[in-house]
């Protein structure tokens, strides 16, 4: 799926690196090293109706990101739980772990309630959280769902993180390490673009379709933020990809109100 979003991201990455990406990164994934002196390239995408996505391709340094990757891959107590979707039980197609501040309501999804680990068990997570807070003034995340995709057959299907636990306009900050993976966004059925009626005619409908779908390549050390009503109005996924032959680790930071539930 090629959209205007893809083209903007490719141009931004090329401008940031000052050259074409030659690939050949560790683990068989493409990427180039980046130094702290390079400017962060940021895409700010207004999805309409109070929904917004912000993408920072080089949020953390290249080697720093690999250091985090290796720590997380080795020290996080990963589990691959059995979940229940549409009345059927199946093994979740990725590894997960949950970290949260003390005293928060329990997280539960698809019939699964993960154990909430303490931030103090994994000090590097607190360092990453501090970097996220510094990059997003006014943010205050207190929970973290970690995901590990061990290859291209691991994925997450179309969904929205719209659990009542988080509230209607919660933000999600997503930091990625390791193999690059495609991240897709599409508008939920029945949600009109910027509150307008659907266009008439074949060409107009095609324009609507493109405006309602976006694709991001989440790079090693990148940050993607979903804000506002994105979870109410949009679905997202990380699809299977045969070419993704190595591991990706993703951290999704969220705010759980203490009065939730």
TrEMBL record:
One GO molecular-function entry: cytosine C-5 DNA demethylase activity
Annotated positions binding substrate: 86-88, 162
GO biological process, any: DNA alkylation repair
Compositional bias segments (type: Basic and acidic residues): 201-212
Chain ranges passing through the membrane: none
Basic residues composition bias: residue spans: 191-200
Residue numbers spanned by region Disordered: 18-43, 191-212
Fe2OG dioxygenase domain boundaries: 140-257
Binding site for 2-oxoglutarate: 147, 149, 159, 236, 248, 252, 254
Family as reported in the entry's similarity comment: Belongs to the alkB family.
Protein name: DNA oxidative demethylase ALKBH2 isoform X2
Organism per entry: Coffea arabica (Arabian coffee)
């Amino acid at each position: 799926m090629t959209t205007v979003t893809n083209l903007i991201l490719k141009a931004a990455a090329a401008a940031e690196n000052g050259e074409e990406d030659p690939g050949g990164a560790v683990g068989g994934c493409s990427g180039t090293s980046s130094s702290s002196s390079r400017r962060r390239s940021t895409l700010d995408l207004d999805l309409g109706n109070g929904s917004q996505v912000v993408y920072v391709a080089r949020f953390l340094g290249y080697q720093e990101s690999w250091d985090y990757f290796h720590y997380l891959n080795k020290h996080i107590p990963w589990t691959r739980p059995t979940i229940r979707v549409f009345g059927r039980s199946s093994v979740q197609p990725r590894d997960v772990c949950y970290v949260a501040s003390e005293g928060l309501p329990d997280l539960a999804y698809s019939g699964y309630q993960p154990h909430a680990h303490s931030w103090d068990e994994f000090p590097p997570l607190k360092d990453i959280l501090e970097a996220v807070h510094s990059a997003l003034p006014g943010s205050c995340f207190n929970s973290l769902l970690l995901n590990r995709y061990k290859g291209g057959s691991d994925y997450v299907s179309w969904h929205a993180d719209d659990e009542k636990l988080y509230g209607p306009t919660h933000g999600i900050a997503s930091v990625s390490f390791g193999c690059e993976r495609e991240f897709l966004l599409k508008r939920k059925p029945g949600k009109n673009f910027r509150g307008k009626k659907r266009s008439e005619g074949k060409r107009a409908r095609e324009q609507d379709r493109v405006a309602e779908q976006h694709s991001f390549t989440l790079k090693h050390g990148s940050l993607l933020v979903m804000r506002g009503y994105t979870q109410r109005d949009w679905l997202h996924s990380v699809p299977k990809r045969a070419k993704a032959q190595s591991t990706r680790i993703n951290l999704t930071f969220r705010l759980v109100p203490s009065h939730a539930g």
